[in-house]
Design goal:
With about 900 residues, this protein is α+β, with helices and mostly antiparallel strands. The chain contains 36 helices and 28 strands.
């Protein structure tokens, strides 16, 4: 059996193959069926086990823990007791929809774990008792010898024991943009996961060659399993808006109890009965609770989601819309996010010339240009190097649903695409120069050679590492023909190769030999043709998006599994590097959490990182109080996406795991779409803030009016029914209209709220308090003044009733610009205009119909009364405008 004490603490990449066999008690002949069965019993099946999964029932019950939900249920009950069935049913529906929405969002989050499990290989070919056997991948055990062939999905983490040109696509797990060549040699201990080239990892795909590997970890012990464990342990952050609303709900609940107690006490003081005082107190408390809040927030977010879809941003978790607007840091993967995840030839070197190649990705369009700017269309040396490169490649360029894709190795694919840009199509070249033999690429030879038959004889095509290709060449091709390749020329070529590599390019050399039918002989005394530089290119629109991020106060940070040189090259090209540091995963391992906390705001690129590194970076930023977004497409990104305030998955290249773990998906995989999402998020956040400020200021004004009249010894200015009606009117259409207010022109230049900042900043609170205080004063003065001048109580109450509603209408327009910023007409919110008009018509109908008059306890008013009410309500606007102006002056003075 396996030596578990050694296996548990072992770093398999540091051991020789015999040492691995010894620890795992296995051999090249594999395990016996009896031993495999015993190990399956001991170690369990090779599938991911998910801990701490939450049941659907528990998720549903958790929705009732919200204080606001409980308050709304109480409001529905009181409305029912007072006979307002319509309002009670409306509130109940709002509560139900809010609970259903919350349940759906949390339940969908659990699906990310299931998606991760589905990425496992279905079957595996293993050697048992010297015989190749196909088994269910779930039955693979430590010590099994697995057979690896091109196209296979690796069933478990394993140490490579044989490699014949074995290459593995690990992009979904490590972020490496090109397939990784695998070998059996031992490696240094402290290296990143992407550099462990003698290991193959569960869930990755064999793209080239073949090999054997011995299983060292299964199930949750694999790198995939570690990600699954991280997903179950990662806590999902609540957004700043959610925190503010939760805090607001608690305080509203406390305030409601205080209001009820005060009204009962005052009722006894004035000699009213306990029941009447209690009912009025509850009605007043209900009036203070914005029962439409969940509906307004949900509708505002939902409409924002619809607008985002048009801008290629798909939101699965509604609160993420608001969080996206508050993002201060975007931690972005490189491959597939900043770049296209399509290897592209961007430069060639031949005959002492560097040639730039335009066009990115697999689209076979582009041009070849010298440094002088001259476009090359018929250059014979360029044609020769591209023809040989295409012949010595196995990849194919195909069109799939209007999009070009590569079948085969991406590096070879880039050569095929470059040839197509020059008019050299692989399918025609293969027909004209049929392949006769080949020597495949190996990690030892570091080159590949193919032999082709032509009408004039034979041609051998070779590609590989520059230093290797130069060692088998004795001539090189120039404009004057084939010239002897001396040491000076070789040094010049190697210097050119180093220059291309310093630009983040993967460099390959191309050579040929003609008129030799023996491929082994043809692989010597070759003619050097030139160098090819390839890179996963940056998306052309990302540079502008990064600049907009900086203008908006958002810091972009690259986190990638790629090599530091490649990452730095892309970072500089995009303008992402701004004097900050570049840190590798190994260097990050050497940092304590405290060190990372102190340095995180200085680091702009993380290279050669693993999943735990990404999680640490996100958490370090969050500890600094920043709202963090994380973009990604691979399985390795899932834990960080879940932990971030906003997880942004790639819709095209992203895995199901990533999309399920993320709250937002970019349907076009475009980093630039994030900027559109941020703008929409800020608009929505501002609108919800406007709604809350307007509503709470109005409700506080109502409470101030009632309590003020009682304390001054006057009758109640509003009845319980009138309070509930005002609450229904002001919480209704005008509030919803504010939730869809048009965007301010300076929305992307406004200050971003931090994680710890409440939705109600000091200027907002002052504006809300001043609005509430002024409405209390003028309504109270109007009510008392009319009583003292001889008005009947019912008429004075009617004036107070209409005045309160009019004041709310004026406030709705004033709170459209809470800080006096923005642009556009005061009346450019057509929804607000129509809501006010319709509610005015409703009010006039109520005032004219005797039945409704009796129901509300109101009487008809004179023209003088209507004029008095209108002028009184309009005074709110200049008072709030003056308050905003004073706040603006104070902010300027403070900043200076």
């Amino acid at each position: 059996m396996v030596n578990d004490s050694l296996a548990e603490n072992n770093k398999w990449h540091t051991l020789t193959v015999p040492q691995v066999f010894d620890i795992l008690s296995t051999s090249p002949q594999g395990l016996s069926s009896e031993e495999a069965t015993a190990r399956l019993t001991k170690y369990g099946v090779n599938i991911l086990q998910f801990k701490n999964k939450t049941s659907a029932f528990k998720i549903f019950i958790q929705q009732f823990k919200s204080v606001l939900v409980l308050l709304l249920l109480a409001a529905a009950l009181v409305s029912g007791l007072l006979g307002h069935t319509t309002e009670a049913v409306a509130i109940a529906i709002i509560v139900f929809l809010s609970i259903l929405l919350g349940f759906t969002q949390e339940w969908r989050a659990e699906k990310s774990l299931e998606a991760l499990g589905e990425m496992a290989a279905p079957t595996a070919t293993v050697i048992r008792a010297s015989q190749e056997t196909k088994i269910k991948a779930a039955e693979a055990v430590p010590g099994d010898i697995i057979v690896l062939s091109a196209g296979d999905k690796v069933p478990a983490d394993a140490r490579v024991v044989e490699s014949f040109s074995l290459k593995v696509d690990e992009a979904s797990l490590t972020g490496e943009s090109v397939p990784v060549e695998k070998h059996i040699n031992i490696l240094a201990e402290n290296i990143s996961l992407g550099d462990k080239q003698n290991l193959v990892l569960a869930g990755t795909i064999i793209t080239y060659g073949r090999g054997l590997a011995v299983v060292v970890a299964t199930g949750n012990k694999t790198e995939f399993g570690k990600i699954a464990d991280m997903l179950t342990q990662v806590e999902v952050n609540t957004t700043p808006l959610q925190k503010s609303l939760n805090k607001l709900s608690t305080r509203l609940g406390q305030a409601s109890l205080v209001v009820i107690a005060i009204m009962v006490a005052l009722g006894f003081w004035q000699g009213r009965g306990l029941f009447d005082s209690l009912i009025f107190g509850i009605a007043l408390a209900v009036a203070a609770v914005p029962e439409a809040l969940p509906a307004v927030v949900t509708i505002s977010l939902a409409l924002g989601v619809q607008r985002m879809v048009k801008r290629n941003v798909l939101v699965r978790h509604l609160p993420a819309v608001e969080a996206l607007g508050g993002v201060q840091v975007i931690c972005t993967d490189k491959t597939g996010t900043l770049t296209k995840n399509e290897m592209t030839v961007s430069a060639l070197w031949c005959d002492n010339r560097e040639i730039k190649v335009s066009g990115v990705g697999y689209e076979p369009t582009g041009a070849f240009m010298e440094n002088s700017g001259k476009t090359l269309t018929a250059d014979p040396i360029l044609r020769e190097i591209l023809q040989v490169a295409v012949l010595c490649s196995d990849a194919k360029l195909v069109e799939d649903q209007g999009r070009f894709i590569i079948k085969g190795d991406p590096t070879e694919g880039s050569l095929v695409v470059a040839g197509a840009k020059f008019g050299l199509l692989k399918e025609f070249l293969d027909q004209e120069y049929p392949r006769q033999a080949e020597i495949p690429f190996t990690s030892e030879s570091k080159r590949m050679t193919t032999l082709h038959k032509t009408s004039a004889g034979y041609i051998a095509a070779t590609k590989g590492a520059p230093e290797v290709i130069l060692n088998i060449c004795d001539k090189w091709l120039t404009a004057t023909g084939e010239v002897i390749l001396n040491d000076d020329v070789k040094n010049n070529i190697l210097q050119a190769a180093r220059k291309l590599a310093s630009q983040g390019l993967r460099v390959m050399a191309i050579a040929e030999r003609k008129n030799e039918a023996d491929i082994n002989q043809a692989s010597r005394q070759m003619v050097f043709l030139g160098l090819v530089g390839m890179i996963d290119p940056a998306r052309p629109e990302v540079k502008a998006a990064i600049q907009i991020c900086r203008t908006a106060g958002i810091k972009p940070v690259m986190i990638t599994g790629d090599h530091p040189i490649t990452a730095e090259s892309i970072g500089r090209e995009l303008g992402l590097i701004d004097g900050g540091q570049i840190v590798t995963g190994v260097e990050l391992d050497a940092m304590s959490d405290a060190d990372l906390f102190n340095q995180v705001d200085k680091i702009e690129i993380y290279a050669r990182v693993s999943p735990i590194h990404k999680l640490r970076v996100v958490e370090a930023w969050q500890k600094k109080g920043m709202v963090v977004a994380m973009t990604g497409d691979g399985v390795n990104d899932a834990p960080a996406l879940k932990r971030a305030d906003v997880g942004l998955a790639m819709g095209i290249t992203g895995t199901d795991v990533t999309r399920e773990a993320a709250a937002v998906t970019l349907t076009d995989d475009n980093f630039a779409s994030i900027v559109a999402g941020v703008e929409e998020g800020r608009v929505i956040y501002n609108n919800i803030k406007k709604y809350l400020t307007y509503l709470l200021s109005s409700n506080i004004g109502e409470i101030g009016l009632v309590v003020g009249a009682i304390f001054l010894g006057f009758p109640l200015p509003l009845s319980a029914v009138q309070l509930l009606f005002i609450n229904l009117v002001t919480d209704g259409a005008p509030a919803l209209a504010l939730a869809v207010d048009p965007a301010d022109s300076d929305v992307m230049k406004q200050k971003i709220n931090s994680r710890h900042q409440n939705i109600f900043d000091r200027p907002t609170i002052w504006l809300m308090v001043v609005g509430a205080a002024w409405s209390t004063i003028i309504s109270l003065c109007l009510f008392i003044g009319l009583l003292l001048s001889g008005y009947p109580l019912l008429q004075a109450m009617t004036v107070a009733f209409i005045s309160t509603i009019f004041i709310h209408f004026v406030k709705a327009y004033s709170f459209r610009r809470p800080h006096g910023s923005g642009s556009g007409s005061l009346f450019n919110n057509k929804w607000l205009n129509w809501s006010i008009i319709l509610e005015m018509i409703l009010l006039l109908v109520l005032m004219a119909v005797p039945t409704f008059q009796g129901w509300l306890g109101i009487v008809p008013l004179s023209i003088f009364d209507w004029l008095l009410v209108s002028l009184t309500a309009l005074t709110v606007y200049p008072v709030l405008a003056l308050t905003k102006k004073m706040q603006g002056s104070l902010v300027v003075a403070t900043s200076n």
